[in-house]
Amino acid sequence: MKVIKNYLYNAFYQVFILIVPLITTPYLARVLGPKGVGINSYTNSIIQYFILFGSVGVNLYGNRQVAFVRDNRRKLTETFYEIFFMRMMTVLLSIGAFFLFLVFVPDYQVYYLAQAVSLIAAAFDVSWFFMGVENFAVTVFRNLIVKVITLISIFTLVRSYDDLTMYILILSLSLLLGNLMLFPGLHKYIDKPEFSSLKIGRHFKPSLLLFIPQIATQIYLVLNKTMLGSMISVQASGYFDQSDKMVKMVLAIVTATGTVMLPHVANAFANGEHEKTKDYLYSSFSFVSSLSIPMMFGLAVITPKFVPLFFTSKFSSVIPIMVIESIVILLIAWSNVIGTQYLLPTNQTRSFTLSVVVGAVVNLIANIPLIWIYGAVGASIATVLSELSVTIYQLVVIRKQVNYKLLFDDIFKYFIAGVLMFLTVLFWDRLMSDSWLSLVVEVIIGIVVYLICLLVLRAKILFKLKSVLNG
C-alpha cells in the first residue's frame, strides 16, 4: 500500500506542477500570443542546457544512492551533504558558463536573465533526497502553496505581451521558492554534517555516468525547440512547446510510477531480492500500458476539437503536431518502466545510457531534414522516431533477463479496448458541436467505453486493482 500511496502522491504532484501551465496556457496564448509564447519556449530551451550541466545527473543518481543507504542515518547524512555540495559547485560553474554565453548572444538578453533564476534554483533542488527516502508528501504539499502563489501572480501581473519578462520571472522564482521550502523537512532524516568526513569527489564519476543519458534525453526534449527557433521561427518553437506541454501533462500521470518505483526496486535489489525486482517490472509494465494506451488514443481523437477551444484558432498549427506526438505517450511509458524502474535500480546504467544515446542520435539526425521540410510537424515526427528507438533498444537489452510473455501479458486487450474507444469517440465527435461541454462528454464516453471493453475482455489489471483496494 505504501507504493500505491506514493504513486498517488507523485502522480498528483507531477500533474499539479503542470496544472499551473494548463490553467494559464489559454490565458497566456491570448495575452502573449504565438511570438511571446515562442520567445519563452526558445530561451527556456537554452537555459535548460545550463541547468542540465549544473545538475550532473544528480536527480537520478541522488535518488538511487539515498535509497541504498536510507536505513543508516549516518550514511544517509554523509550521502546527502556530499551530493548536495557537489551539485552546488557544478551549478556555480554552470552559472559562470551562462554569463560567458551572454557575452556572445545579443538577442533576448533580458529574457535569458529572467530565465537564469531557474539555474540558481537548481543549486537548491533537494527533491531527489525525498524521493530516495520515499517521502513524496512533503514535495506535494510544500509545492502546492508555491504553485497557488504562482497562479495568482500570473493572472495579477501578466496582462500583455509587454509583461513577458515578468511572466518568465514568476516561473523562475517559483522554482527557487519551491526548492527552498523543502529544506526544513530534512532534519527528520539527517544530522549536521561532519565536514572532515565528507568525500564529495567520490560521487562525481558515478553521477557523471547518469549525466550522459540525461544529456542525451535533453537533446530530444529541448533540442527540438532550440532547432525550431533557430531554423524556422520562435513561433514554430512555441507551437511545438504547446503540444509538448499537453503531452507531458498526460505523461506525468503515467511516468509518476518511475519516480516511486526506482527507490523501491533499488532497495529490493540492494537486499538481494532479484526475482522481486522482475515482478515489480511486470506489474508496472502492465499498469502503465493500461493507462498510456487509452491516453494515447484519447488525446489523438480529441485534439482537433481541443486545440481551438484551449489555445484559440491562432494556434491551429498545434493540431497535427499534437496528434503525431500523442504516440510518444505509450513509448515513453514503456521506456520509463524498463529504464527508470528496472535498468537503473539494478545498476545497469551502461545499458540505460546507451538506450538514451541511441534516441538522441536518431532525434538529431531525423530533426535536420524533417524540421527543414515540415517545420514543427517534422520535429514531432523526429520525437516519435527517437522514443521508438529508445524503447526498442531497451527491449532488446532485457531480452535474456525477462519473460516477454509475462511482460506483454494482456497488452493486446488494452489495444483492442483503446481502438474501440477511439472509434466510438470519433463517431460521436462528428455528431457533436465544438464546445467545452461536448468535449467533456466525449472524454466521459471514452473512459466508459474503455472500462467496459476491459471488463468484457476480462483484463487482469482490473482484478489486481480490486484485490489491492480490498486488501
UniProtKB/TrEMBL annotation:
<feature type="transmembrane region" description="Helical">
    <location>
        <begin position="249"/>
        <end position="269"/>
    </location>
</feature>
<dbReference type="InterPro" id="IPR050833">
    <property type="entry name" value="Poly_Biosynth_Transport"/>
</dbReference>
<feature type="transmembrane region" description="Helical">
    <location>
        <begin position="351"/>
        <end position="374"/>
    </location>
</feature>
<keyword id="KW-1003">Cell membrane</keyword>
<protein>
    <submittedName>
        <fullName>PST family polysaccharide transporter</fullName>
    </submittedName>
</protein>
<feature type="transmembrane region" description="Helical">
    <location>
        <begin position="164"/>
        <end position="186"/>
    </location>
</feature>
<keyword id="KW-0812">Transmembrane</keyword>
<feature type="transmembrane region" description="Helical">
    <location>
        <begin position="207"/>
        <end position="223"/>
    </location>
</feature>
<feature type="transmembrane region" description="Helical">
    <location>
        <begin position="140"/>
        <end position="158"/>
    </location>
</feature>
<feature type="transmembrane region" description="Helical">
    <location>
        <begin position="110"/>
        <end position="133"/>
    </location>
</feature>
<feature type="transmembrane region" description="Helical">
    <location>
        <begin position="7"/>
        <end position="29"/>
    </location>
</feature>
<dbReference type="Pfam" id="PF01943">
    <property type="entry name" value="Polysacc_synt"/>
</dbReference>
<dbReference type="InterPro" id="IPR002797">
    <property type="entry name" value="Polysacc_synth"/>
</dbReference>
<feature type="transmembrane region" description="Helical">
    <location>
        <begin position="41"/>
        <end position="62"/>
    </location>
</feature>
<feature type="transmembrane region" description="Helical">
    <location>
        <begin position="315"/>
        <end position="339"/>
    </location>
</feature>
<dbReference type="GO" id="GO:0005886">
    <property type="term" value="C:plasma membrane"/>
</dbReference>
<feature type="transmembrane region" description="Helical">
    <location>
        <begin position="435"/>
        <end position="457"/>
    </location>
</feature>
<keyword id="KW-0472">Membrane</keyword>
<keyword id="KW-1133">Transmembrane helix</keyword>
<feature type="transmembrane region" description="Helical">
    <location>
        <begin position="380"/>
        <end position="399"/>
    </location>
</feature>
<feature type="transmembrane region" description="Helical">
    <location>
        <begin position="281"/>
        <end position="303"/>
    </location>
</feature>
<feature type="transmembrane region" description="Helical">
    <location>
        <begin position="83"/>
        <end position="104"/>
    </location>
</feature>
<feature type="transmembrane region" description="Helical">
    <location>
        <begin position="411"/>
        <end position="429"/>
    </location>
</feature>
